[in-house]
Design brief:
This protein is an all-alpha fold. The chain has helices spanning 2-5, 11-35, 37-45, 57-77, 81-103, 109-124.
Length: 134
């Protein structure tokens, strides 16, 4: 089909759509965690138990919330894109481990998927329509 053969011309548009959608979702996930305050941060931070970190839960929870919110914004504009994608991948790794160890493999599926999406995005880069374009 002729239309399918031309879709390769829109790689940068595809990356932009992915960046906008994921960025908006992560701002939506992260901002309420920031606004939730110390109790929320401590709750989120306890997930670090699953990677062997058993201290500073409030700090780690706050850092995860800021990473989701600021990382989402950076994805949208395409600034510091690769570091943001890798930090979000790490947050998804911790989330996947948390869900796997507390609820089982099936509940870890979404964070695992996002982990690989962020690794792939870090490898590919933000595309032409970004502040970091090269």
């Amino acid at each position: 089909m002729a239309i399918l053969s031309t879709l390769g011309n829109y790689k940068n548009t595809g990356l932009l759509i992915i960046r906008l959608a994921l960025g908006a979702m992560f701002i939506t996930y992260g901002y309420p965690k920031i606004m939730g305050g110390p109790e929320m941060w401590r709750g989120v931070g306890t997930s670090m138990n699953h990677v062997g970190i058993t201290f500073g839960y409030m700090f780690w929870g706050f850092l995860a919330a800021v990473t989701e919110t600021l990382g989402g914004f950076l994805l949208i504009i395409g600034l510091a894109f690769r570091p943001a994608a890798l930090l979000l991948a790490f947050v998804m790794l911790v989330a996947a481990l948390h869900h796997y160890k507390t609820e089982g493999f099936m509940s870890a599926g979404h964070p695992i998927e996002l982990l690989f999406v962020f690794i792939g995005l870090a490898l590919v880069g933000p595309g032409k329509y970004s502040v970091d374009k090269r």
